[in-house]
Design goal:
This protein is α+β, with helices and mostly antiparallel strands. It is built from 4 helices and 4 strands, in the order βββααβαα. Strands 1, 2, 3 and 4 form a 4-stranded antiparallel β-sheet that branches. Helix 2 (49-59) packs across helix 4. The radius of gyration is 15 Å and the shape is globular.
Length: 109
């Protein structure tokens, strides 16, 4: 039976390539997203950094597996989200992670 939910949530692993002196290093985190209405997605111009950040603020419920620069675990908060959104190399992987999971769910149905 197909359940109709207003804003279902889902988690997925996302790989983010972090620039370093030795080339990109792949690091992983686990965002939990909320699936929003397709018409609402159209409001965001995902070619714009400002709109991409606004989109991610809307769809991200939380991100697990975050650490600070010294490797200590970060407690999830709005401040943690804003710290992630300040990293230009994190925006695309987090956005792609959302759509990949939605498209995968559609392909499987």
């Amino acid at each position: 039976m197909f359940k109709v939910l207003d804003e279902p949530t889902f988690s997925t692993g996302v790989e983010i390539k972090v620039p370093t002196d030795k080339g990109p290093q792949t690091e992983k985190c686990k965002p939990t997203y909320r699936a929003i209405d397709a018409e609402e997605i159209e409001v965001f111009d995902l070619r714009s950094v400002k709109d991409t950040k606004a989109f991610l603020r809307r769809v991200i419920v939380r991100i697990d597996d975050l650490t600070d620069a010294k490797g200590a675990p970060l407690t999830w908060s709005e401040e943690a989200l804003e710290a992630v959104l300040r990293l230009p190399y994190a925006l695309n992987p987090l956005t792609v992670g959302y759509f990949d999971q939605l498209n995968g769910a559609q392909k499987g149905n």
